[in-house]
Write a structure and sequence with these properties.
Layout: H1 3-32, H2 35-56, H3 62-81, H4 86-94, H5 105-119, H6 126-136, H7 142-149, H8 153-169, H9 182-201, H10 212-228, H11 232-245, H12 271-287, H13 292-305, H14 314-327, H15 331-345, H16 347-359, H17 367-379, H18 383-396, H19 400-413
Helix pairs in contact: 1-2, 1-3, 1-5, 2-3, 3-4, 6-8, 6-9, 7-8, 9-10, 9-11, 10-11, 11-12, 11-13, 12-13, 13-14, 14-15, 15-16, 16-17, 17-18, 18-19
Length: 414
């Protein structure tokens, strides 16, 4: 094989890694019963692919090939180490290397859902549940997760290590819980899926505003959970993700710069996702048992109906935020409500609400609070106050497109 063809296959191996590695890992965790052992097996399988595929060609089913190779390599490793570890000797006997059966695609797909519920087992702390799922199911780096949690990466890494040890020592099963146990386990699963989506919708740091792979994965996981349990809040979360994702193309310019909602070309919004999202919102609202995800989705649905920011029914949005604040009295929700109040009642009303939030010490390290305040000061002609708030936002923002946007706003102030 010539060098050009070999390079092409190496690029294909990299593409398979990006698209399939988390599915391969989920299946290996089930087959091997250990996170770290599965991680090692997956990397060995991809190393084998790099070595063999340029020579033998890409197999018809790359995912099954990788799972099979990873499993056999793990068994070989366990057998070598079994001479020094009685536990591994027992495990080596349990893992039958003569079993060459590889699960069909449907089983492999379900492995990621099984893995989510394993990571979200109630024996783990809520923080560990979310962190472990983001790391193992979705492949976020320790740094990305730590940024989302606003904690130090070493602290987050230790949290993940302890969670894995707990799953191993407590023999937590790798399975979807029973119908009886499922509702109690659902809240953390939904929280995790939404955190994954948020990292895809607005990346916590880096050069790109969004990560389509994570947003798409969160939506896929949301669909899987809805098939398993069509609860109103599962439906509401899927609706929310679809409606927010519908605006992806319009949220950045051709050069990757941020475009605010009020300035977006709404003809670029994905109408298929909007239509599906609206139907799901109606379905959840009609149940009468909806919660915060459905209310957020309803707010997004109101935005999706308007031809422009000026034509938006801001009174309805503020009313929905009033309900949401009762369910989730959190500073970020109050901030979003304040922005909606500014659109309904004018920038001064919104600014007063934001100042009250900041005066309590809430959101002092949240760049969007300072940038929202700066924008309202700018609209009121309070240039010095606007400049000060933009500078505070710039000091803590980690996302490059948002940084460029804030720098542009400062230049416009003169």
């Amino acid at each position: 094989m010539n060098e050009t063809a070999a390079n092409q296959i190496r690029q294909q191996v990299e593409a398979v890694y990006r698209s399939e590695s988390r599915r391969v890992l989920a299946t290996l965790i089930r087959l091997l019963g250990d996170f770290d052992r599965a991680q090692e097996a997956m990397h060995e399988a991809f190393a084998a692919a790099v070595a063999q595929w340029p020579r033998d060609g890409i197999p018809a089913n790359p995912r099954s090939w990788l799972v099979s190779v990873g499993r056999f390599k793990a068994i070989d490793t366990i057998r070598r180490r079994a001479r020094f570890d009685t536990h591994l000797a027992e495990l080596a006997q349990q893992l039958d290397p003569s079993d060459t059966t590889i699960e069909d695609d449907e089983d492999v797909e379900d492995d990621r859902l099984r893995l989510i519920f394993t990571c979200c087992h109630p024996a783990l702390s809520p923080e560990a549940q979310v962190a472990l799922t983001l790391r193992e199911v979705c492949g976020l780096s320790t740094e990305e997760i730590a940024s989302a949690f606003l904690i130090a990466p070493p602290t987050l890494a230790q949290r993940i290590v302890r969670a894995k040890a707990k799953i191993r020592d407590a023999r937590i099963p790798y399975q979807v819980p029973s119908k009886t146990d499922l509702p109690d386990r659902l809240d953390t699963v939904l929280q995790t899926i939404y955190l994954v989506f948020n990292e895809g919708y607005a990346a916590s740091s880096g050069r790109s505003l969004t990560r389509a792979d994570l947003a798409d994965e969160a939506i896929r996981l949301g669909r899987l959970v809805m098939e398993l349990l069509p609860d109103s809040e599962v439906i509401g979360l899927l609706a929310l993700m679809l409606l927010q994702e519908s605006r992806r193309t319009a949220r950045t310019s051709s050069t990757g710069d941020l475009i605010l909602l009020e300035d977006q070309d709404r003809s670029l919004w994905n109408q298929a996702q909007i239509s599906e999202g609206r139907l799901l919102v109606q379905q959840s609202l009609s149940s009468g048992r909806f919660g915060s995800y459905t209310l957020q989705a309803a707010i997004s649905a109101v935005h999706s109906e308007a031809q422009s920011a000026a034509a938006t029914d801001w009174a309805q949005i503020v009313g929905l935020y009033d309900l949401l604040v009762q369910l989730e009295p959190f500073p970020v929700v109050a901030l979003n409500r304040a922005v909606a109040v500014a659109m309904r009642d004018g920038p001064l009303a919104g600014l007063q609400s934001i100042d009250q939030i900041l005066a309590r010490g809430d959101l002092a390290d949240y760049h969007l609070a300072h940038s929202a305040r700066a924008d309202l000061c700018r609209r009121l002609g309070r240039t010095a106050d606007a400049r000060e708030s933009y500078q505070k936002a710039l000091a803590i923002v980690k996302q490059e497109p948002e940084r460029r946007f804030l720098e542009k706003r400062l230049r416009e102030l003169g």
